[in-house]
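About this split. The held-out portion is used to measure sequence recovery: a designer receives only the C-alpha cells and must propose an amino acid at every position. Recovery is the fraction of positions where the proposal matches the reference. Here is one held-out target exactly as it appears in the evaluation file.
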C-alpha cells in the first residue's frame, strides 16, 4: 500500500471513530431520557440530541468524507486494503449514496413532517380519531414514495425501503415465504380455536413483588451468560436494548405488578439482543462492523432466547424452582402448568401483546398494507377498512375502534415503512438457526434442562455474534445453515410445539 493510501485509510477510520464517539454520547443521552431523566428536562435534552445528531449527519455527508470514499473505492486501491476495511468502505459508501440521493431541502421537509405527524399520531391514538391523523399519514406516504424514486429500485418500489432495514431483502424474496407462513399459521390457529382446548394463561395474573421480579430477571440474564460488567439492567416503559459502546450493552425491562410474564419475557428478549452485541469481535470496536448485521438478524437472536429457549419445557424444568421460591403463589402449581400458561395462544388486537403464534399474522397485515401503499394500489383513506378485513381474515377478530386497529403503532408516523417485516424475518431466521443448532448440538435440550445455557450461547457467538456487521445477513444465514430464507423450519416448529400443547 502506498503511504498516500495508508494515510487516507487512516484518516477515514479516524473520522468514523469520531462519529462513533458522538454516537456514544447521543445514545447515552437517549438511554437516560428513556430510563428516568426528569420529565421537565425532556425538551432541552431533545435539543441537545438534535445538535449532536446534526453534527453526526454533517460528518458523514461532508465533501471530505465523500472524497475518502471515492479514493478508497478505486478498484486499484481497494485490493490493497484489508478485508475489514473494504467492508467498512462498502457499508459507508452505501449509506453515503443513500443520503445524497435525497435533496437536502426534501430531507428537512420530511424531518419537520414526521415530528408533527408523531405528535398528531399520539393524539389521534388517544382519541381513536383516524381522520385527524389521515392527512399527515398521506403526506408521510407521499414523501416516502418520492424517496423511493430518488433511491431507485429494480423490481418493486417497496424494495427500496426494505433495503434500509434488511440489506438485500426484496418483495420477490419475501412474498412466497410470508404467504406460506401466513397460510400455515392461519390453519394452525383455526385448529387451535376449533379444538376448544385452552391453556391456563390466567395463572400469570396476580400480585408479583417487583423486587422479586427484578431478582428473577437478573438471575436469568446471568444464566444466559450476559456480562453485567459490560452492561446493566434498568426499567423503562417500553423495554429496549441499547449499545453505548462495545463494552456497554444495556438492557431494560418493565416490571408489572399484576403480570409476571411481561418483565420475564421482555428481559429474555432484550437479553438476546444484548448477547449478540456482547459477542461481537472486540477488534471491531469503534467501526461500523461493531453492530448487528441487520434488524432481522438482531431480532432472530432476541426471539430465539425469548421463545425458542424461554418458552420451552426444558427451560422451565431448569428454572421454575426459582419462580416458586420468589413467588410463593406458585408453590402448588406444577411446572407443566406454568409451561402451558406461558404458551397460551389467544388472537388479540394489539401486536405488542400477541403470543408467539399469532404475532406473525399481525406483521402480515402490516406488510401487505405497506407494500400496497408504496406501490400506490391502496389509499391511506382506505386503511381502517382494509385493516379490519385483514384482521378478520387472519386472526378472526375485528377491532372495535381505530385506536386498537390501524392507529396502534408508532412506526408509520415517523416514516418507518419497511421496518415491520424484520420482526417476522427474525422469527424465520431463528427457526433456521435452531434447526442447525439441533443438528450440530443434538443434546442441546438436555443442556437447557440441566440449567446450562452457556454452550448454546457459545454456539451462537461462534456462528453469528462474533461476525458483527462484517457480513450481509443473507451471507450469515447461508454460511450457518447452508440455505437462504426458508419458513419451513418455523412452520414445522410451530406445528410441533402447539399441536402437542393443544392436543391436536
Ligand atoms: Zn427486539
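Reference sequence for scoring:
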Amino acid at each position: 500500500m502506498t503511504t498516500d493510501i495508508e494515510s487516507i485509510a487512516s484518516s477515514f477510520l479516524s473520522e468514523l471513530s469520531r462519529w462513533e464517539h458522538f454516537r456514544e454520547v447521543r445514545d447515552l443521552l437517549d438511554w437516560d431520557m428513556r430510563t428516568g431523566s426528569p420529565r421537565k428536562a425532556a425538551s432541552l435534552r431533545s435539543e441537545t440530541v438534535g445538535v449532536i445528531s446534526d453534527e453526526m449527519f454533517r460528518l458523514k455527508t461532508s465533501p471530505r468524507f465523500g472524497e475518502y470514499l471515492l479514493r478508497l473505492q478505486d478498484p486499484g486501491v481497494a485490493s490493497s486494503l484489508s478485508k475489514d476495511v473494504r467492508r467498512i468502505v462498502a457499508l459507508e459508501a452505501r449509506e453515503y449514496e443513500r443520503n445524497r440521493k435525497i435533496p437536502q431541502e426534501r430531507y428537512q421537509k420530511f424531518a419537520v413532517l414526521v415530528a408533527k405527524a408523531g405528535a398528531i399520531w399520539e393524539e389521534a391514538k388517544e382519541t381513536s380519531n383516524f381522520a385527524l391523523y389521515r392527512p399527515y399519514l398521506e403526506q408521510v406516504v407521499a414523501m416516502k414514495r418520492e424517496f423511493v424514486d430518488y433511491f431507485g429500485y429494480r423490481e418493486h418500489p417497496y424494495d427500496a425501503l426494505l433495503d434500509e432495514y434488511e440489506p438485500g431483502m426484496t418483495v420477490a424474496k419475501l412474498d412466497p415465504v410470508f404467504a406460506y407462513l401466513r397460510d400455515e399459521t392461519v390453519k394452525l390457529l383455526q385448529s387451535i380455536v376449533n379444538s376448544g382446548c385452552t391453556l391456563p394463561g390466567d395463572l400469570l395474573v396476580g400480585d408479583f413483588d417487583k423486587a422479586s421480579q427484578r431478582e428473577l430477571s437478573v438471575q436469568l440474564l446471568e444464566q444466559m451468560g450476559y456480562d453485567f460488567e459490560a452492561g446493566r439492567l434498568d426499567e423503562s416503559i417500553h423495554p429496549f436494548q441499547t449499545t453505548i459502546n462495545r463494552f456497554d450493552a444495556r438492557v431494560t425491562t418493565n416490571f408489572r405488578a399484576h403480570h409476571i410474564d411481561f418483565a420475564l419475557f421482555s428481559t429474555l428478549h432484550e437479553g438476546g439482543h444484548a448477547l449478540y452485541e456482547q459477542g461481537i469481535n472486540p477488534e471491531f470496536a469503534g467501526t461500523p462492523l461493531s453492530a448487528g448485521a441487520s434488524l432481522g438478524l438482531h431480532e432472530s437472536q432476541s426471539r430465539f432466547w425469548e421463545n425458542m429457549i424461554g418458552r420451552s419445557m426444558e427451560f422451565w424444568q431448569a428454572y421454575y424452582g426459582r419462580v416458586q421460591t420468589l413467588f410463593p403463589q406458585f408453590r402448588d402449581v406444577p411446572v407443566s402448568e406454568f409451561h402451558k400458561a406461558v404458551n397460551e395462544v389467544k388472537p388479540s388486537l394489539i401486536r405488542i401483546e400477541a403470543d408467539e403464534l399469532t404475532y406473525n399474522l399481525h406483521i402480515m397485515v402490516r406488510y401487505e398494507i405497506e407494500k400496497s401503499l408504496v406501490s400506490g394500489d391502496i389509499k391511506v383513506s382506505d386503511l381502517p377498512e382494509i385493516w379490519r378485513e385483514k384482521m378478520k381474515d387472519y386472526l378472526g377478530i375485528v377491532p372495535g375502534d381505530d385506536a386498537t386497529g390501524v392507529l396502534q403503532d408508532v412506526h408509520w408516523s415517523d416514516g418507518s415503512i419497511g421496518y415491520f417485516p424484520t420482526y417476522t424475518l427474525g422469527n424465520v431466521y431463528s427457526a433456521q438457526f435452531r434447526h442447525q443448532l439441533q443438528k450440530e448440538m443434538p443434546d442441546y435440550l438436555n443442556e437447557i434442562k440441566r440449567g446450562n445455557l452457556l454452550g448454546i450461547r457459545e454456539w451462537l457467538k461462534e456462528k453469528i455474534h462474533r461476525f458483527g456487521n462484517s457480513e450481509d445477513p443473507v451471507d450469515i444465514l447461508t454460511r450457518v445453515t447452508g440455505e437462504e430464507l426458508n419458513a419451513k423450519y418455523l412452520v414445522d416448529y410451530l406445528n410441533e410445539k402447539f399441536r402437542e400443547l393443544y392436543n391436536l
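Annotator remark: The CA atoms of residues 136 and 389 lie 23 Å apart.
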